[in-house]
Amino acid sequence: MSDRVAVGVLTQAFPQSLVDEVLAETGRVQQRNRLLPARLVVYFVLAMCLFSGQSYEEVARLLTAGLQGARRWRASWVVPSTAAIWKARSRLGVAPLRQLFARVCRPVAAPDTQGAFYRDWRLTAIDGTTFDLPDTRANVEAFGRPPRSGRGEQDVGYPQLRMVGLVECGTHAVFGAAIAALRTGEQTLARAVLGSLRPGMLLLADRGFYSVDLWREAAGTGADLLWRVRKDLVLPVIEQLPDGSYLTEIFDRSDIHHTRRGVPVRAVEYAIAGHEGVYRPITTIPDPGKAPAAELAALYAQRWEFESTLDEIKTHLG
What we know:
alpha+beta; ten-stranded mixed sheet; 36% helix
């Protein structure tokens, strides 16, 4: 019964009509009848995430048993071999799954979802991580291994890919993701997911994502931002505000003498008991009446919801 429920979740989130649309859009509709039609292979790849500890054949058996239980599969069927499944996945390719993600994965919080909103803003966070890959020559060449710390030492460990994603803080729904080789920087990948931001969102980010160019690009989506910046970043006080925050400007790194006009932002500075140093997030929200400094300081901690999401994906789902 639990297997049927799991497959039922797949067919509810990814309806058959949507899967067929995506297959048509990406040119993956099979030209002849096969033991593993393209639609079934899509559900098979999704089912591998639900039954990650099982073999190819067992995932296929659980999937079709669940579809039969949900009355979405009526024909008699023989579980194909691992080789046949591998060939079917190769025929399907990446494009349909990427398109499904873009069509389905959206923020899902309702107005009463706990922790999903701050005042009128939907809370989101951006961060990056790495995932281990099978230790094959092709993966090493395409993605690379983690580098050793010492000079001249050979890279070791499993090959890895780098991922940067957008998460809805209140639900841990990943609604934007970009992957690339390990050598690709997080800021480079971040640009690939900013298009998923919308007005009415408030994006939280740590200091590793800060650059003036990336800030401009993210703010250009209409979303508001709350990003921590480095402690050595010069932030001239233009106007002190009654809540303790202040208006300032940020400048391109190349403009060391501030000869060009900077980007106006509002800065908040605070300390945390038991921790050294001062935390300095900056925001696109200039009015302290709409977002007081004390509330923004407390809100920045919600960025850790991304870490909780990674724990769910890597530890509990993976």
